[in-house]
Amino acid sequence: MPEDQTATTTAVRGKGRPRVAETAAPSMVELVNLIRADDPTTRQKLERKSELGRAVVADRLTMLADLGLIDESDTGPATGGRAPRLVRLAARRGRLLVATLDQTALGVGVADLSGNLLTEHHEKFELTAPPQALAERLTTLLHWSLERQTSPAGLWGISLSVPGTVPGTDSAFLTRTPPALPAWEGFPLVEMLARSFGAPIWMRSSVDTMTMGELHGGAGKGVSSMLFVKVGRRIGAGIVSDGRLYRGALGATGLIGAIPVHSSDRSGTLDAMAGSDMILREGRLAAETGRCPILADHLHRGGEITAIDVAQAAQMGDEACAEILTTSGRLIGQVVATLTNTLNPEVIVLSGSIVQTNDIILAAVREAVYGASHPLVTRDLRIIRSQMGSSAGLVGAARVGAELLFAPDFLKDWVMQGSPLLHPGFVAFHAGLNTTPPPPVAVPPPRKGAP
């Protein structure tokens, strides 16, 4: 049939009744997410939860199976009759690439469509390096991660974790690089990756992804309310309510490092008064004045002092360094106590390399929170250290990628095609990338004091 005749026939058919895609897509979206929420499930459960009716559920599941999105090859235990077929998401049908960009390291991994991390790799890399160098290394590692996969499954998306706050909603893939990294302004990271890999890209803050990682793979498993606190140069919090990450109106929740605090005769933001820069500054001062013999000897031998060195000296019993960490922990605990009284979490999880090094900050936070919170709030409250370490960001990025891949607003536009790569909006975006030359890269000047 000629192309113009096909178009006319389709248009006429559309006048009389909705096309199949218009009526089937919403129910297919609902069923896919019910399956994801209770994987594996059965047809009987889906009929009950969706209220769509047996015939509709059977028809939609047949369509989803034909598209390769679900699997019904296994059977469950029989309960007096025929064993029911188990309905699962075909999680190995596609792959997600995940990456974390931290201040001093890169992490990359591969996940399945359920957000389960399959492989991971970490290496040192300074975020202060030229953006082009970091982007090229990231691209190389992502390609390497894909090449190591023995499964023929194709790439369906890329989920990135970055140190800065990522504004926006959860409804769509990125078409341009958001202003999450101030030093990278004008650098088209998202555009470069989309052109290189041909897949939708999402980005979240490291606090968001680490919170998700801890919720699904660490101390937060099985809890419905959690407060996650990351301690580093910046101090941020992730909030879990009713088992879901709360991001607020613009994705800018948990910026507790900007809260003003006071200690003795000094005041400033929590970042400045309790973050790793303060620990480093005070530790170096203790070394220079001889109050910390361990660091003084390290400095005398020409070594550079880091915040981790201060934490390790405190762990070895140095009183000056222990007091520095205790001050940091008390100030963090004061802010966390306010959040605890407001949110009533089941568990508070502290993370960050300094927290992982010793128990001093953790103990100081506990003391401040238990001392300044309502007894009912702290009755069953647990305050613990992260169980995930450097894996939390990648695990969380995988979960974020899976949730956004199957978000109803995004899924409804690709479910009938069977792949997000055929989403009309993404097809148009990717075609535009390939028909226009890459934009000129505006490389920012080196930071003041940077090598």
Walk me through this protein's architecture.
The protein is an alpha/beta fold and 451 residues long. The chain is built from 18 helices and 15 strands. 45% of the residues lie in helices and 17% in strands. Strands 6-5-4-7-8 form a 5-stranded mixed beta sheet, with helices on both faces. Strand 5 (105-111) and strand 6 form a beta hairpin. Helix 2 (20-37) packs across helix 4. The radius of gyration is 25 Å and the shape is globular. The termini are far apart. The relative contact order is 0.12. The model is unreliable at 1-18 and 440-451 (pLDDT under 50).
Instruction: State the secondary-structure class.
Output: alpha/beta
Q: What's the shape?
A: globular
Query: Can you tell me the residue ranges where pLDDT is under 50 for at least 5 consecutive residues?
Result: 1-18, 440-451
Number of separate domains: 3
Strand runs, count: 15
* Widest sheet, order of strands: 6-5-4-7-8
CATH architecture of the largest domain: 2-Layer Sandwich
Summed up, the helix count is 18
Rg estimate, integer Å: 25 Å
Largest sheet: 5 strands, mixed
CATH class of the largest domain: Alpha Beta
Say which CATH homologous superfamily of the largest domain is assigned.
ATPase, nucleotide binding domain
DSSP strand (E) fraction?
Answer: 15-25%
Distance between the termini: 66 Å
| Average pLDDT taken over every residue | 88
What's this model, at a glance?
The chain is of the alpha/beta class and 451 residues long. The protein is built from 18 helices and 15 strands.
